[in-house]
Amino acid sequence: MRDRIILHVDYDSFFASVEQQANPFLRNKVVGVTSANSNKGIIVAPSIQAKRVGIKTGMPVFKARALYKNIILVKSDFVKYTHVQKESLKIFAKYTDKIEPFSIDEAFLDITQTCKFFGTPENVALEIKSELRKTIGTLITCSIGIGPNKSMAKIASEINKPNGIFKLTRNNMEEVYKEIELTDVCGIGKATAKKLRDLDINNLEDLAKTNYAILKLNFGNSLANFLTDIVKGTESSGVSSIDFKRVPKSMGHQHTLSSSTKDKLIIRATIKGLTELLARRLRKYKMRCTGLSLYIKDERGLGREAKQSFTKGVDSGQILFEILHQLYLGLNVEQRVRFIGIRAYKLESARYSVLGLFEEETRNELPKPNSNRNTSARSQENTLQQIKYDRKEALSKLLDSLNNVWGTKTIFFGTEIHAGEVQGKTSSFISYD
């Protein structure tokens, strides 16, 4: 039976790297992603710089501060991390349909049947790294292990960290296993490692030399078989493909203010900020929406919703904001606002042309021209409207490219400035139903 070609893609300091990519002020700093911004939390993920000063995953914050008093703490944001994971899966799908996310920051790819179209396994790994850099940023790096099965590929991904590539084969495994710690192997926890050391088995080389009967006596059939498969390179579990290519039906963003407000500038700026997040997300998914809704909840907990549909898809933040702002004015909100949510629905692929978005016969979101005006005048107005739309779309793409390189909110519209005056929590959602 021919060996398979399995890749294990494992991000380096994933949560911290995502935060550093999103925020330029965190780059090259000792950063700890935490479960809570206080001394009571733990370090969920240290940055590469934090690891260099001895800070480790799972370390209490107070101990991390003792090691490096100026550590920058960032509360974990799984909306960001899940988004990066989804973008990664799209890239992996260019090389194979056999993809198994192993956790939020790692995945197995079976490229046995498709590798021949891209060259060597190393070429595939390099191409994936290049695609990831272009799509999710240069600071979010990964290490890629190549092996004939999942276990060996996962071991290989640990060897040249960070940002490395290593191919583990049956020819070099004996030499490599001399350097591999027992706990570096997925499936060997601290308790199993301690029991192995009690048997004077201190690394994979020792394990390979151990008689199966001894392993069976001490660990039972199942674990003994697992350990033997690891060291012999005979592990054969398949890559469990998942269906992640579903097309979303709706998506949105929402913000809970830390204190209620009636300030229309702040409310307007908050809606604008949410709109830009939504528009950028639509463009990431290469989708446009033909429906928008705005939900406002006041300090009493009472909510009101307004929605509008239109015939042509939109992904421009400026145009979406114009529609949402009109919806907000139409609600005549008099109470202090505590919660704002926006949702894009009736999504369609962005591959459809935007030409004709402002044509009179299909335009229901803009006032229709006076019927007495001649065809030439209407045509001229439609042309001007289309030029305005094209400029807004070009500006949106420019903002995307700058923020992708330099981090979220590096550049934004002036109308969002007042949003910073009221703090709160922003979250996102997506529906496939």
TrEMBL record:
GO biological process: DNA repair; error-prone translesion synthesis; SOS response
One Pfam entry name: IMS
Protein name: DNA polymerase IV
A molecular function (GO) term: DNA-directed DNA polymerase activity
Secretion signal span: none
Regions of compositional bias (Polar residues) in chain numbering: 369-383
An example Gene Ontology CC term for this record: cytosol
